[in-house]
Design goal:
It catalyses: 2-deoxy-D-ribose 5-phosphate = D-glyceraldehyde 3-phosphate + acetaldehyde. The protein is α/β, with parallel strands linked by helices. The protein is built from ten helices and eight strands. Strands 1-2-3-4-5-6-7-8 form an eight-stranded parallel barrel, surrounded by seven helices. Helix 6 (107-122) crosses helix 7, helix 7 crosses helix 8 (170-180) and helix 8 packs parallel to helix 9 (195-204). The longest helix is centred in the middle third of the chain and has 16 residues, at 107-122. The protein starts with a helix and ends with a helix.
Length: 225
């Protein structure tokens, strides 16, 4: 597989979710996203206004996280976070499912949680990605979580937060693709550090990549252009 640097950049949510991220680190992430014209900048909700303003005049989206990184906040809290983030300038919301309810077999609670956030997101014409945290799930649970993401009305299913025991794996992306069919979108995130790993995820079926190593990977891609 071979994409130009510009093509690959549009797969990337350039990510800075570290709890210790300072304003200067956020501004650097925005500057890099502007330079390479990535799909989005993904940050914690506190920074949404700053990032939205910093991306003015570009087609780079502002992406933020909800119920992050555990997914164990109430649905009402997730909906409130979503509405506030959109008001602050977010274009894309990445929410974490209620992992415990999924593992406990309470699929209705998981679907209802997703649907409530999807409705709040879509009411403002924005995109919702749903993080299922594959490293904590069996293959059967990954499949079920992916199907519930579709049923709940989201736009993407996403592999990982990057904050648990491991991140994206190509075999999980393939399993998710089988579960959601050819047209639903998938985001692979967590532990993608090289051009080869980025290509592995795209070849497995990912439509978007959550990456903090975007600059390194895109510079690698430029050498192959």
């Amino acid at each position: 597989m071979k994409l130009t640097q510009a093509q690959l950049a549009k797969y990337m949510d350039h990510t800075m979710l570290k709890p210790e991220a300072t304003a200067a680190m956020i501004d650097q992430t925005v500057a890099e996203a502007r330079k390479y014209n990535t799909a989005s900048v993904c940050i914690n909700p506190y920074w949404v206004k700053r990032v939205h303003e910093g991306l003015e005049g570009t087609d780079v989206n502002t992406c933020t996280v909800v119920g992050f990184p555990l997914g164990a906040t109430s649905t009402a809290s997730k909906v409130f976070e979503t509405k506030q983030a959109i008001e602050d300038g977010a274009d894309e919301i990445d929410m974490v499912i209620n992992i415990g309810e999924l593992k406990g077999g309470n699929d209705q609670a998981v679907e209802d949680d997703i649907r409530a956030v999807a409705e709040a997101t879509h009411a403002e014409g924005k995109l919702l990605k749903v993080i299922i945290e594959n490293c904590l799930l069996t293959d059967e649970e990954k499949k079920r979580a992916s199907e519930l993401t579709v049923k709940g009305g989201a736009d993407f299913v996403k592999t990982s937060t990057g904050f648990s025991t491991s991140g994206a794996k190509a075999q999980d992306v393939k399993l998710m693709r089988e579960a959601v069919g050819p047209d639903f979108k998938i985001k692979a995130a967590g532990g993608i550090h090289s051009l080869a790993e980025a290509y592995d995820m795209i070849e497995a079926g990912a439509n978007r990549l959550g990456v903090s190593a975007s600059v390194k990977i895109l510079e690698e891609a430029a050498k192959q252009d």
